[in-house]
Amino acid sequence: MNQTLQASNTSQRAIPSHAIYALSVASFGSGMSMRIVDSMLIRLAGDFDVTLGVAAMAITVFGVAYGLSQLLFGPLGDRYGKYLVIAWGSVACSLTALSCAMAPDFSLLLIARALAGATCASIIPLSMAWIGDVVAYEDRQTVLARFLIGQILGLSSGIMFGGISADYLNWRFPFFLIAGSFFVTGLYLVRLNGRLPSHAKALRKADGHALAHTVAEFRKVLEVTWARKVLGTVLMEGALVYGALAFVPTHLHTVHGSSLAVAGMLVMLFGLGGFLFAVRSRSLVKQLGEVGLVRYGALLMAAAMLIIGYSPVWWTAIPACFVFGLGFYMMHNTLQINATQMAPERRGAAVAAFASCFFLGQSAGVAVAGALLVSVGTAHLLATAGIGVLLVGGRFARLRAEKTA
């Protein structure tokens, strides 16, 4: 990764070699926060005496707050420096994770999860935008893929550790670990920000009132036709993929009798599929191109969801979850690279809008899936999401091919 940074821009030799690795560590905590509740839903429903659909609100409120907070952090990163905002945002994440761990009832847990989503919004999208600022486009997809290893491992660890905690430990325990990780990482990033060269801390001077400036930034992003197509695609992707993924542990537990710990470990393979893409991203990008990555990624996800949903035996979820993760990151990483370039003169706001759509889509998908769970069952939910992903991915692949032509 360091060689890629130096090759893409000679002025970047002054950037500390571990600057992106430190961001990846912060993204690990963010990814773990996103998915830590997925495998806990049955435990939370029992402990707080609520239905499974109501327990899923702990996922929904995180995603809504995460998505809406992009309207704040994107312009803030452009105005005050992306790396600095990420650093202090990580410190804030430690406090909100601690509030989740100490919530005395379900209502306060929902409030704490919303605050956690709001603070986590400062990390991954701004990190992507900062990478877009300092890495040339031809090298950016590979660097982004490797940066996302932290998030991938965080997502996987969150699902697995959430299941283990639900079965064998107190569900509050993982939140204490997340809080500690964020605190140490945040302080390190604050220190590292002071060592960045001026071109890596470039600020955009804003004119007029901050709110008016923020609205103007997002309006200019939405005026770009290609930006609207990318944002619409990631909105649907988030709804379909995570509306399904959030209930995979529940499906394995209720249909096949798997323990929550085992179900969480199986879904962890989703992250391992993403890890394979990250380490093989350079060759996959070269072989398939952006159009092929989206098309085949959507096909792999659809096949995996159908297998998990309708297989009569539990063990088919082992390869299916792995393929699900590989397909998702093939498609999503391609959408990310397009997001970093769809409005380069206001990249912070553009990537923030991308993340906002992705997480608002996730929240809507989980909410709708939770409402339909009792009436249609987890198997049909997974299958419907798989067909939807195939259609959305096929459409974007066609649009990207037309744009290239």
Can you tag this structure with a few keywords?
disordered N terminus, Growth Hormone, Chain: A, globular, single chain, 405 residues, 18 helices, mainly alpha
Your description of this structure?
This protein is an all-alpha fold and 405 residues long. The chain has one domain: MFS general substrate transporter like domains (Growth Hormone, Chain: A), CATH 1.20.1250. It is 82% helix and 0% strand. It has 18 helices and no strands. It has helices at 2-8, 19-35, 41-48, 52-55, 57-80, 82-101, 106-120, 124-134, 137-147, 149-168, 173-193, 210-222, 225-245, 248-256, 260-279, 281-310, 317-341, 347-404. Helix 2 runs parallel beside helix 6. The longest helix has 58 residues, at 347-404. It is globular.
Short recap of the structure:
The protein has 405 residues and is mainly α.
Low-confidence stretches: 1-13
Task: Characterize the biggest β-sheet.
Answer: none
CATH H-level superfamily: MFS general substrate transporter like domains
**Assigned CATH architecture:** Up-down Bundle
Helix fraction by DSSP (H/I, runs of at least 4)? over 70%
Structural class: mainly alpha
The level-1 CATH class: Mainly Alpha
Overall pLDDT level: 80
Whole-number count of domains: 1
* CATH fold title: Growth Hormone, Chain: A
Count of helices?
Answer: 18
Can you write the helix and strand succession as a string?
HHHHHHHHHHHHHHHHHH
How many E strands?
0
Shape: globular
